[in-house]
Amino acid sequence: MSDPYIYHICRAEEWAASQGEARYGGSTQDLADGFIHFSTGAQVRASAAKHRAGQAGLVLLRVAAGKVGDGLKWEPSRGGALFPHVYGGLPRDAVVRVDDLPLDGDGRHRFPADLDDIPSEEAS
Question: What structural domains and CATH numbers belong to the chain?
């Protein structure tokens, strides 16, 4: 994999609530599923469109995959594609950047410009 990062989309207040904690435990949906959902740079736009369409107040966590530890597992999901899942909470020190994900005029999320260099996978 050429991109050393994995990406997680969550509500800004969920991320803010974990300030001061060593680990981020994920969203209510993540807790119900037993792991934190992540995407690669190529998958993240399709994941946002499928699971977070039209939602405002979101942030994108850019995470150094190599700093996550043994909790990172690559598991099949949409169409058999492998997605990164994190078990046991995300070490906050693995998060290298947090970006707001505003909506454009059509209700789609605007991603950071440096993700434009990563080819996107189509939603399935």
Answer: 5-113 (3.20.170.20)
